[in-house]
Specification:
globular
Length: 257
């Protein structure tokens, strides 16, 4: 299938590792001019050098003016983005009973505010062209809140509400807005969560991983490239009638439809 991404510009946030890197590689393989970015500027440049048409940008989206600088760097390299992938590291594990208002504010800043700033920059050009793809890497926690991840549950649910509302507003302009929800994808983030759960429960990390895998109908953690393949499709031309949707890529982990 031709995904219709050749010559399109794709900005993939937090793409110097894990799921973000896998998505950047998948979009680049489909012919997109790809902006790889993250706080590790050298790593971004290394990844970009391995792709057919890409640039690496050092970017801290939580810094003052960070989203604006990243957007401007994208425009300078390839023009206004046709594809915007919203992604970022999750906040620390924590139970809801231990949270205060400052914790909630930090989670919203990391998982909602920075993404709104980027969307606000990218959306006008997408609407003017009559073509755009906005895809957020979310979490299964927006449909079934995850234990000990109250900050992630809070921030990602807020982002989902914003994007669902936005999707209806821009659908007639040829812009799709979707979420892709990972389950247990084998990344550094997943390893950190397993380590935190092991410490909290008094079990070994190996025991936690085995129990987690056993809870997944596929009986294993997913691979970043499997997740990225789904992301590339949602960002594609053939996916033009899919919008306002949260798709799970989780091996059947969440038992609801």
């Amino acid at each position: 299938m031709d995904l219709g991404l050749t010559g399109r510009t794709a900005l993939v946030c937090s793409s110097t590792g894990g799921i973000g890197e896998a998505i950047a590689r998948a979009l680049a393989a489909e012919g997109a001019d790809t902006v790889v970015c993250g706080r590790r500027g050298e790593r971004a440049a290394e990844i970009a050098a391995e792709l057919p048409s890409a640039v690496g940008v050092a970017a801290d989206l939580l810094a003052e003016g960070g989203p604006a600088r990243l957007y401007d760097a994208t425009v300078e390299a390839f023009g206004a983005p046709d594809v915007l992938v919203l992604n970022g590291p999750g906040p620390r594990p924590a139970p809801a009973s231990a949270l205060g208002v400052p914790d909630a504010e930090d989670a919203l800043n990391a998982l909602l505010h920075q993404h709104i700033r980027l969307v606000s920059r990218a959306l006008p050009a997408m609407r003017e062209r009559g073509w755009g793809r906005i895809l957020a890497v979310g979490s299964s926690g927006i449909t079934a809140p995850l234990p000990n991840l109250a900050l992630s549950n809070l921030g990602r649910a807020a982002l989902a509400g914003y994007l669902k509302t936005l999707a209806a507003e821009v659908a007639a302009d040829g812009v799709t807005v979707n979420l892709l929800l990972p389950g247990r994808i084998r990344t550094d983030r997943t390893a950190a969560v397993d380590a935190a759960n092991a410490e909290r429960s008094g079990r070994s990390v190996t025991e936690v991983e085995r129990a987690s895998a056993a809870s997944i109908p596929a009986r294993r953690y997913g691979r970043p490239d499997e997740f990225a393949a789904a992301a590339a499709f949602l960002c594609s031309a053939p996916a033009s009638y899919i919008t306002g949707t949260a798709l799970r890529c989780d091996g059947g982990l969440v038992r609801g439809l």
